[in-house]
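In this supplementary section we document a worked example of the pipeline. Step one takes a protein sequence of length 353 as its only input; no multiple sequence alignment statistics are reported here. Step two produces a three-dimensional model, which step three serialises into C-alpha cells for compact storage. The input and output of this example are shown verbatim.
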Amino acid sequence: MTLCKMADNREQAPAAAPVTVKQPVNPAVNPLENMMGYLKADMASVNAFILDKMQSDIPLIPELAGHLIAAGGKRIRPMLTLASAALFGYSGNRQNRLAACVEFIHTATLLHDDVVDESDQRRGKASANAVFGNEAAVLVGDFLFSRSFQLMVEDGSLDVLRILSNASAVIAEGEVLQLSTANNLDTTRDDYFHVIRSKTAELFAAACEVGAVVAGRSSLECAAIRDYGINLGIAFQISDDVLDYAASADVLGKSLGDDFKEGKLTLPVIIALEKATAEEKIFWQRTLMSLEQTDEDLHHAVEIMRRHEAFKLSLDVARGYAAKGIANLLSLPANHVRGDLEALIAFAVERQY
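The serialised model returned by step three reads:
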C-alpha cells in the first residue's frame, strides 16, 4: 500500500473569504473530555509508556522530564493518534506506543522552546529551564527525542518511522525559521504560516496520520486525516496567538502577552502592522524590534490591534482552516469519533476569550 505523499511545508492563507465552521460550538465544552471517555483505557496505556520510557539511571532525567509532564497539558497530540485509530476501527494497541512517541516529541520541543524563549513559566508553573537550568533542559529534551525514535523503531513500521522522523525534522526547521522572524517587522503572512505549519501543524498531522497507518487504511484516507491534522494545527495556533493578547482569563498556562514580550510576529501583530499608522509603526519598532517596553505597552498594543480588528480578522482566518479541516473528514467513516474531531477543530478556534 502506498501512503499519502508528504505535503509541501509552506502554507498560504486562504484566498477565499473566511468560511464559518458549520456546526454551533459551546466553547465551554471541550470535545477532548468526551473523547477521553471512550479512549480512557488507551490513554492510561499511553501514560504508562510515558512514565516507563522517561526513566533513566541518571536521576535528573526523569526528575526534569516529570516536572513538565506532571504539569499536565491538553495531551491533544497523543489523543489525536488514539482518535485516528479509533475512527478507522482499529482494535490493536500499536497506537498507544506511538501516541507516547508523539508526546515525547512534543515535550522535547517544549523544553527547547522554553530555553530559546527564556521562558520562566509553562503550564501555570515554573518552567523546567527556570528550575533546573538551560543546559539540563536542552539535554533532557534531546533525551526525549532519542526515546521517541526508539519507540518508532520498536513499532517496526518504516512508514511510521518516515512520518514521525520527518515531522521531527520539520519542527526543528520551524524553530530555526521562527528565530529569523522574531523582532523582524518585515515578517509576512507567508512567513508566519510557514512557521506555524512547521512548528505546530506538522506534529498534529503526523499524530493523525500514524493512527490511520496502523489501521491499514488507504493512501486517500491517510491523506485526508493528515490534512485534517494540518488544518487543526494551524487553526489551533492562530487561536493561541490571539489568546496570548485577548484571553479573558489566563487560559494558556502562561502569562498573557508573552509573545509581545518576546517580540514574536504573530498573525494579530502582522495584521495590525499592515494597517499601521506612522506613529504605530514607531511603537512596534520600539517594542518588538528593540524590545524596549514599559508596563503600559502591552495594553497599548492590544488597543492598536483591537482598533484594526486584528483579533477578529485572525479568528476569521482560523475559522477558514477549521472549515477546511471539517471538509477533510467528509470522506472518512461517519461515526461518533468523526463527530468529535469535527467539534474539536471548531472548539480550537472558539475557545473563551
